[in-house]
Write the structure tokens for this entry.
Amino acid sequence: MRYLPLTDTDRTAMLDAVGAPSIDALFADVPADLYLNGPVEGLPLHATEMAVEKHMRTLSKKNLAAADAPFFIGAGAYRHHVPASVDHLIQRGEFLTAYTPYQPEIAQGTLQMLFEFQTQVARLYGCAVANASMYDGSTACWEAVAMASRVTRKSRVVLSGALHPHYAEVVRTMAKFTEDEIAGSAPSLTSLPDDDGLIARIDENTASVVVQYPDILGRIPDLQKIADAAHEKGAKLIVVNTEPVALGALEAPGNLGADIVVGEGQALGVGLQFGGPYLGLFAITDPKLVRQMPGRLCGETVDADGKRGFVLTLSTREQHIRREKATSNICTNSGLCALAFSVHMTLLGAKGITGLAAENHRLACIAADRLAKVPGATVLNEHFFNEFTLMLDVDARQIVRDLADKGVLGGVGLGKLFPDIDGLKGGLLVTVTETVSPEDIETLATTLEEVLP
Amino acid sequence: MARYFTEEHEWIEVDGDTAIIGITDYAQEQLGDVVFVEVPQTGTEFTKGAEAAVVESVKAASDVYAPIGGTVIEGNAALEGEPELVNTAPEAEGWFFKLTLADKDELEGLMNAKAYQAFCDSL
Amino acid sequence: MNQINQSGWKPGTPVASIDGEAHPTVTGNKALILEEALIFEIGGADTCGVDLPETPTDLPSRIGTFARQGEIGLPGLSEPQTVRHYTRLSRQNYGIDLGFFPLGSCTMKHNPRLNEKVARMPGFLDVHPMQPIDTVQGALGVIDELSHWLITLTGMQAVAMSPKAGAHGELCGILCIRAALEARGDARKVVLVPESAHGTNPATAAFAGYATEDIPANADGRVDLDALKARLGPDVAAVMITNPNTCGLFERDMKAISDAVHEAGGLVYCDGANFNAIMGRVRPGDLGIDAMHINLHKTFSTPHGGGGPGSGPVVLSDALAPFAPLPFVEKTEDGSLRIVEEENMEDHHASTFGRMTAFHGQMGMFTRALTYILSHGADGLRQAAGDAVLNANYILRQLEDVLHAPFGPSGPCMHEALFGDAGFAEGFSTLDLAKGLIDEGFHPMTMYFPLVVHGAMLIEPTETESKDGIDQFIMAMRSLAQRAKDGDEALLSAPHHAPRARLDEAHAARKPRLAWSEPEE
């Protein structure tokens, strides 16, 4: 078997050295009635590489890849062009098959990369410190809520209605077990986000206010205004960003009063991958709160010869030391995805991400103008970056299915995101990145005209 | 002024109604290089045995308990910039916090220097 | 041409020593190991390694007043500089591809490259989680097929696929348990955890609102069944057991433990980090457990990637299956697959405890793990477990005469061998031995875990090591053990040959510097 180096000669010699008659004898501690005498039944036996590849390829061909259709889906995961060198670099065995850098002398590759990554995230978000990644944006959002409750010693959490519903559900689920009180609401169907409505829900007992930027309908909330209102009541502002490319055009949340900024880094370097693995980003503006942060942190230091080096630090907050008093139970994070993000971000730099953002917005504006001309469709948003809501007179989910039948992946029906809110069902969330061509936009528009009643 | 010791390796120096509390030389040696100390805020009230402070080294974070009950009047601000004081002067400048005693009877049962030394020798 | 090696030299043969330190270089480079600065010190705001279309700057914008002011402060590098930067960094890293990585309880086995090829097939890589169901039947098919394997291998009844890593899976299992107990009106407050458990166990239980208490071990390194039975009662919600345990030993009384817990009204969570020892030979379901997380990045060969991503699906008993989190994959009446989430859960799934993550889980790890599982098949997986256990026992017996092996006399170990520092010279620790091991070309084993053995060294070779490779490791360990017992001072300042000498961790923690900033003038 190709992954097993031991030969029968080796096994015999080793059993001899160990003084056991067989490998089964080494399992003597397993009660005899519980020890299986042969391979588990009901499962196939080993297969050649060729056979496995063929089997998996057949499964992969049953999926419609985004490259094979005009593609306008976003809603928390974004399709961007990932430069070819990113994938080559993350497949270097020294990155791919390395472990968590607990032995820093032979892990400076991972550690220096993490230090660069932390700095890139902090700067993109306008923050002082970022951690070395979390599982994804939704769990990072929950961790931010938990941190804000710890720091303020309060337990009421106000969620913006226009927060990604999966993120809100994760927060609600986790809060059931920590007894934080979650005050959510439905998203308003207005051209501007309902910042005043959100502000009105903040009170003295509020630990944190969670706002998505841009929001789930693609609109852009006034973060500074919300931050001021939150701080006045002694609450922290948590800003959630699911599309990091947006920050190449929009002001950084950390510069607009956010206390904790979390988000999804998938858009850069990582790829869609049907939902995972993704990349949670977590950053804070006040460096004094660093010991309350969850997740791993990489810091700069020197070695015994005086050379600069990097190590994981402030580990005493983490599960393997603090155990039941840890700031979180997270152990594994998303290291390889952080590397992919960092390589992509290094290739882009400030100039590149600004240019990429401008191109996204340009195409999104073209799409919005063209789709607004489709009979029965209006663009809801006053402002957007690369994602906006198109209002139709029918349930957009059916339209999405009809478009797919014609080979167009036209977006996400809001009814899929908010199944309990009738008023939103006519909304179609349309996302336009640099991977979309003007021809794709025209195809979406004409196909939409065909399928709309 | 009298100095007492606990089995959790804290020392407490009593002067009338106030006391200063820290950890012993034995404790700092066990911990290794101290990197951070979280001292309680002024005004916090403790019962005897409550978690009062946290002392962090690179590899461990240990709780420090209030050897007697009382109200905190001062946390050692010097430890914020120089946590290493706990290693270099644990029973002097590396003190953790001062408090006013709630009940002097709680000092019963704490060890004196000689008893504490014997206790450490037995470990 | 393959000439016979006439000199008889082979790696490890002593040569006349050449002290590299006596020959400093002006660049600080040492031949193939190159020093590399930070991107902030190399790149610039005007450099870019990506060609973008020329977007006119005077276009009408729908961004409103929210445009970014000021510099972002992120440097760019050209493509050649980027490739060099990360290539140089990679060469300062140890990985499984390079050599033996015997981290106990981490199962650092070979990461097959077929996994990487399959994960990158466009139909897997370039598919959005919110595409219409008809356009992703293949992806759902992968999840379905992998679920079937995990359930059948473990002898359980259901599986929650969405947890993102092992610790996340633990949380999922404990929250299912909490939901199940609350549904029967019997919320309990305490979870019991062996002293030898991994730190995620009590951290998870605390996060879920439980108080944790230790279960003592007996002299045999296993859970003390009598002590456990004495503690069980109406306030104990669950026990969290690792089997094989973190000392590398099979919990012989596992079935009795499960029975006792169930009888007392509690539930059993099994930490599946060590499943590599028993896969294909023992089914945890037969041991009476209610939930177990599986680390795809340990047992099923998905890459560790320098710290992640992982994937932690949780197999569940019938008692816990109704409470599994959303979303999950289900077969419909017409045979097609669908994802059950908030939109379509209706009443059948009302007892789910909620959602743990956006979207559906670590699909990229599912394709890799399924590829590996299909390659091995039921017989290969069984053989892999056997070889893993054989390799660990071989190491145990070849080292127990020079290194303290606290459970050596009690019988065979499972997939990992546990040693301690008894007998080391005064002032010499497990850490020093480990740093010496780095110089010998190996990644150190897990150190100071489990906490129950002083100076613990937990060595897990896995099945993907050759006998020659293991023999070389044994040779190095015998030498280091002797040096630690003799008090060889050179160990105290090891490693001497790594890209960096020992790093000052106290300094890093006292004055945390967690992001780069422009140097002061």
About this structure: Chain B has a mean pLDDT of 90. The two ends of chain B are 28 Å apart (CA to CA). Chain B touches chain A at residues 36, 56-61 (CB under 8 Å).
